[in-house]
Amino acid sequence: MQILITNDDGIFSPGLYALAAEMCRDHEVVVVAPNAERSGAAHSFTLTTPLRAEETSLAGLPVRAYAVNGTPVDCVKLGCGNLDVTPDLILSGINLGANLGTDAFYSGTVSAAIEGGLLGIPSMAVSVNSFTPEDFAPAAHIARSLIPRLLRGECKVINLNVPDLPEALIKGCRFTASSRQVYDEVYVERRDPHNRRYFWIPTAKLTQHETNEDTDGRWVGSGYAAAVPILLDLTDHACLARWRDET
Ligand code: MN
Fold first, then answer.
1. How do residues 12-50 score in pLDDT, each as one tens digit?
2. What 3-state class would DSSP assign to 142?
3. How far, in Å, from the CA of 7 to the mean position of ligand 1?
């Protein structure tokens, strides 16, 4: 099977390396990833500047690899359209930091997988719940275990989040729903050396998950990996049905 791997942390992220190392053991892996970190790029693409795909290598791995001066979505589009790749599967990650629930709207990692889905290719975003993970192997192994299910075709995109725990301490993998993530929305305000103020987005989460809720945030916080099947349709079908009935 040919697997296209991308991410939003940049092509030299240790998380991407770990995922490519895991998958190239028994698959043909092509890496097409941003040449620098693009976390938070969401579903953006590059419209007004030229893109370059520089062939590079990932130390010791037998994979074709391209560093692109664009977004994760650019990488998926280029990978599937221009770089002589016809992937059976797209994997995005392993992202440093969780992409739980509504974080998916901001995440370049998840958006790359959604782009894969929009192109008709089974795709999975993989994130570990730490910016300084101990070990990527648990997330890589759980991602691998979900591939047969993804290829069954009931859903085109999975958003997988894995706790930063030793493999033996991860209690299992839950199929679950997307959670609402709540942040401190007040940007940190500081002064530059010229005494002009600047703002920086805070990352402190205020989210509290109920102990009985069946969402990715609750399960990852309880020591489980969490896999959410993602729709490619933002329509509120319940609302639409009511409005149709009214007319
Ligand atoms: Mn990232």
1. 999 999 999 999 999 999 999 999 999 999 999 999 999
2. helix
3. 7
N-terminal to C-terminal alpha carbon distance within the chain: 49
Kindly tell me the burial class for residue 19, based on how many C-beta atoms sit within 10 Å of its own C-beta (0-12, 13-18, 19 or more): buried
| Distance (Å) from CA 96 to ligand 1 centroid | 6
Per-residue pLDDT of 138-171, as tens digits, reads: 999 999 999 999 999 999 999 999 999 999 999 9
Closest of 102, 169, 164 to residue 127, by C-alpha: 164
Ligand 1 center–CA 114 separation, angstroms: 15
Which tens digit of pLDDT belongs to each residue from 82-118?
999 999 999 999 999 999 999 999 999 999 999 999 9
Q: Which residues surround ligand 1, an ion (CB under 5 A)?
A: 8-9, 39, 95
**What residue type is assigned to position 244 of the chain?**
R
> Is pLDDT above 90 for 203?
no
CB-side neighbour CA atoms (13 Å) of 33: 35
Distances 49 to 52, 70, 106, 136 between C-alpha atoms, Å: 10, 9, 22, 34
The reply to whether the predicted model has a pTM over 0.90 is yes
Contacts of 43 (CB under 8 A, 6+ apart): 73, 111, 114, 115
The CA 213 to ligand 1 mean position distance, Å, reads 26
> What separation in Å is there between the alpha carbon of 47 and the centre of ligand 1?
22
